Amino acid sequence: QESSRMSARWLLLFAFVGLVGSDVCASAEEWKQQSYPDDGFQVEFSGPVTVTETAMSDDTKSRIVRATNYSQAIGATTYFVAAMLMKDGVNFDGGSSDSFMASRCETTKKAPVTLVGAEKGLEMVGANCLGNGSHFEQRFFQRGKWFYQVTAIYGADDGAEAARHFLNSFKLLWQAELSRPVRAASLDR
To answer: What is the C-alpha to C-alpha distance for residues 56 and 80, in angstroms, rounded to an integer?
Structure first.
């Protein structure tokens, strides 16, 4: 069963690595909010978005209801959201660690991050990644049986501000099919 969990994590990882190496290009445009109610989130992209369903083996389909990737590439910059609905539950720590491993960053930092509606959140930032000096900024969120990976990849010399804009624009939607709404803990009790 551990190998089947690993294959689900690697499925998301391979989809992500494939997008990084793709020739998808788009010209920079204004940031525009995109809403994806079937996958329970909204985010801002600055140009055309490619939406792909992740191909899954029968074994993976036994654990995952669906996995969808949303991406935009502009030269050396890539913005990416992966939304995965699990049948039984999310292995949050394993999924986030395995996904970030693909970046092959020389230096990394990670810290908890909060998002309204998410039960768990983690941010991982890496420098000098993929052997070409790229920077990776990734956020991972769990809400019920949903696992989200939000990624910005950009060159060493520029892109940090736009990457932060993209990451900060990610929001969860309140929908009945996502189960009961989960609210972030409040300090005003």
So the answer is: 19
- pLDDT tens for each residue of 46-87: 999 999 999 889 988 898 999 999 999 988 899 999 999 999
Q: What does the CA dihedral 162, 163, 164, 166 come to, rounded to 10 degrees?
A: 90
Distance CA 50, CA 22 (A): 11
Task: Give the Cα separation of 63 and 132 in Å (integer).
Answer: 35
Distance CA 40, CA 132 (A): 34
SS3 assignment for the chain: CHHHHHHHHHHHHHHHHHHHCCCCCCCCCCCEEEEEHHHCEEEEECCCCEEEECCCCHHHHCCEEEEEEEEEEECCEEEEEEEEEECCCCCHHHHHHHHHHCCCCCEEEEEECCCCCCCEEEEEEEEEECCCCEEEEEEEEEECCEEEEEEEEECCCCCHHHHHHHHHHCEECCCHHHCCCCCCCCCCC
Output the pTM of the full model. 0.76
